[in-house]
Design goal:
- This protein folds into two domains: about 1-95, lambda repressor-like DNA-binding domains (434 Repressor (Amino-terminal Domain)); about 170-280, Immunoglobulin-like.
- The chain starts with a helix and ends in a 9-residue tail after the last strand.
- It is built from ten helices and ten strands.
- It is flat, with a radius of gyration of 29 Å.
- Helices cover about 45% and strands about 20% of the residues.
- The chain has about 290 residues and is α+β, with helices and mostly antiparallel strands.
- The chain has a six-stranded antiparallel β-sheet. A four-stranded antiparallel β-sheet has the order 5-2-7-8.
- A hairpin with a 2-residue loop joins β7 and β8.
């Protein structure tokens, strides 16, 4: 057991050394990841017992990304350190690299009838490319002349929208292009008129949450078993939660349709239209 603890300490020292060599403070990592500083210190001290097992890998990946280390390598070292086999990490890396198949050399047949077959072939290919490029350019010019001068001027012209209108549409459609719709409750029209959202989060077991309200107010906390918390916002909530199968959401007095398995980490968005499931970033996903 002491061997395992020693190897976890070695991993923690690697994390801390990377942070200090890059002149990065724990406060800076906290601002980027919103992971409580006490958990960041625990990672650097090898005191993994103070962190729930379900969050350790997520915290390690966030920390590694913040100090310039490779998250996948840190997770692999953590798994080996728990087994007391951290020394095997270098061996596994070399085995993976040795498994790469060597590139096959391609034999080129050179005819004895040619003085410089490679040069002749290249010259011939260049001429073909040049002829193709000239022909393509000619077609493009003819097409442009037709569109500009010869085409019937009474044809319907597609007008370009003003930049301000396009920018507004992009902002309004941003959520549609980035999110997968998990469920929606269209009965919350009252909240749109009042501009006020009241979200109740209920936990049936201990769960960690990171909440951003109206894209600016951030909060990070644990909910204990059989407890709840009420959050208020004007427009929306963005929530990252661990053990997603342990929580329920009630928006303005109406339950939201949210299904997840125990132990899953989910990233969701909630606004007046309901609940949307967001894609997890690589740095947020847990193997």
């Amino acid at each position: 057991m002491n061997n395992i603890n020693d190897e976890l300490k070695l991993l923690s020292e690697e994390l801390k050394n990377a942070r200090e060599s890059n002149n990065i403070t724990l406060q800076a990592i906290f601002k980027r990841t919103r992971i409580d500083i006490k958990f960041l210190k625990a990672l650097e001290e090898g005191d993994f017992n103070v962190i729930d097992e379900i969050f350790i890998k997520a915290f390690l990946k966030e920390y590694a990304s913040s100090v310039g280390l490779k998250p996948d390598e840190i997770i692999a070292k953590y798994e080996l350190a728990k087994q007391g086999k951290l020394k095997d990490f270098g061996q596994s890396v070399s085995e993976n690299s040795s498994e790469e198949k060597p590139k096959k050399s391609t034999k080129v047949f050179i005819s004895p009838d040619l003085e410089s077959p490679v040069q002749n072939f290249g010259s011939k290919k260049s001429k073909q490319i040049l002829i193709f490029a000239v022909g393509l350019s000619f077609l493009v010019i003819v097409t442009l002349l037709y569109l500009l001068f010869l085409k019937d001027r009474d044809a319907i012209i597609v007008q370009q929208k003003p930049f301000e209108e396009v920018q507004e549409e992009m902002m309004n459609n941003d959520d549609k292009s980035r999110f997968d719709l998990a469920a929606a409750d269209s009965s919350n029209s009252e909240s749109v008129q009042s501009g006020k959202l009241k979200l109740q989060i209920i936990a049936n077991s201990k769960v960690w949450l990171r909440v951003v309200m109206d894209k600016q107010n951030q909060d990070e906390f644990f909910l204990e078993k059989d407890s709840s918390k009420i959050l208020n916002a004007f427009h929306n909530y963005s929530i990252l939660l661990g053990d997603a199968g342990s929580v329920k959401f009630i928006l303005n007095g109406k339950p939201l349709n949210f299904n997840a398995s125990r132990g899953e980490i989910k990233n969701i968005s909630i606004d007046s239209t309901g609940l949307k499931l967001l894609y997890l970033k690589n740095s947020e996903s847990v193997k």
